[in-house]
Amino acid sequence: MAAVFLLLLSFLLPTAARYTPDWVSLDGRPLPSWYDEAKVGIFVHWGVFSVPGFGSEWFWWHWQGQQPPDPNYVSYMTKNYPPGLSYSEFAPHFHAQFFNPEEWADIFRASGAKYVVLTAKHHEGFTNWRSPYSWNWNSVDTGPYRDLVGDLGEAVRNRSLHYGLYNSLYEWFNPLYLDDKKNGFKTQQFVIQKLLPELYNMVVRYRPEVIWSDGDWEAPDSYWNSTQFLAWLYNDSPVKDTVVTNDRWGAGCACKHGGYYNCEDKYSPGQLPKHKWEKCTSVDTLSWGYRRNMKLKELMDLPDIIDDLVRTVALGGNYLLNVGPTADGTIPPVFEERLRGVGAWLETNGEAIFATKPWRVQMENSTVSVWYTSKGATVYAIITARPPTTTLKLLIPKTSAATKVTLLGRPSPLPWAPVYPNAGLTVLLPDLPSTPGQAWTIKLDGVQ
Ligand SMILES: *[C@@H]1O[C@H](CO)[C@@H](O)[C@H](O)[C@H]1NC(C)=O
Ligand SMILES: *[C@@H]1O[C@H](CO)[C@@H](O)[C@H](O)[C@H]1NC(C)=O
Ligand SMILES: *[C@@H]1O[C@H](CO)[C@@H](O)[C@H](O)[C@H]1NC(C)=O
Fold it and tell me: Are the C-beta atoms of 195 and 121 separated by less than 8 Å?
């Protein structure tokens, strides 16, 4: 009897899977479900690079790292700053004096996004929290004199959004890193003395639910100890049950290993990928960090953003949309407007986005492009342009007498007629309301 009971127990109780530090084991971990359901996140690039606010968050590298340096950056410095100014002297000017995490979190919440990812440390090595391993090169010892990671995290979580942290593995100018690099990555001084202790500390302290890893490409994952770190993260860390990670854990890992895949920045697959993925992109098409000289024509407008979001979700991806705050701690109002616009569109159309699954067909070309998502037995056909006529022909859905067609945001059903017996339908569209995103969702019930 006891034996039977024990046997039953062993079937009923999931044995706590222990992951081993190898890709076969780590890649087998199911992605915590909140992430796929969330669909939309906000990415925030903020750091000392926001002070020069010129070119991009790669300012330091273009100015002093790459050989030869980029003349645009050199002349920007010559013209605007005293001779001999070092990059580290920008840090005291990272004041963040207007930073109000509650206001930021309100904006992120209003965008409809379900998660927020902040740069805890970009390639410049400056940490937006008091890392014990980044003495005097962090936001509490200088600049804002404030725990930016902690303060934003509290406000974001207070609005029931998930909180994630971006962390660059490499640091362009860290002497330990440069030394390891000179040794062909046969030594691990930087990883053992700086990177790993900092990363463990960051996870325990802030409990991020996304670790958005970056800056991995110069060295193999064995140099970064990535698999050892991930095994700890998934087995023993305080976020082991909820954390998700991306795929930037060493040269050759992108699109192949890790949690969800980013592949490359702004990646757009042509067809439905087999593995969960995320498109990260930026409202400012030329930079992730704030640029003081950005122009309106260089920004994505709201219909561009909604179109990109819809394609991404139809193809099974999450959409991580970036804004770059100023060194003063403000989110430029033009970015705020975009984010609130996304939220206004999702207010009506979010049913076709959140917690949906890709449908059996992802898109068809009618008089306008039609992107499909699904939830249970319901199929959503999203159009991101106004059709030229008052009817829209959809050839993919299989209809029946029970088929019901509605426009999200409008209570009464839409008249429709089959194109062929039980296949395809022509929908009579109402006057499409002018929506901020210029995209509409036709909800199809009772189709296959
Ligand atoms: C947010 O903060 C308020 C005020 O401090 C608190 O009452 C509330 O419980 C918090 N909500 C969450 C979800 O943490
Ligand atoms: C790094 O990985 C090596 C094995 O490659 C292991 O011996 C060592 O303990 C790891 N260090 C940390 C801090 O994870
Ligand atoms: C729809 O049209 C686009 C642009 O011409 C084309 O790239 C795409 O393959 C078409 N899709 C389908 C499903 O026919």
Answer: no
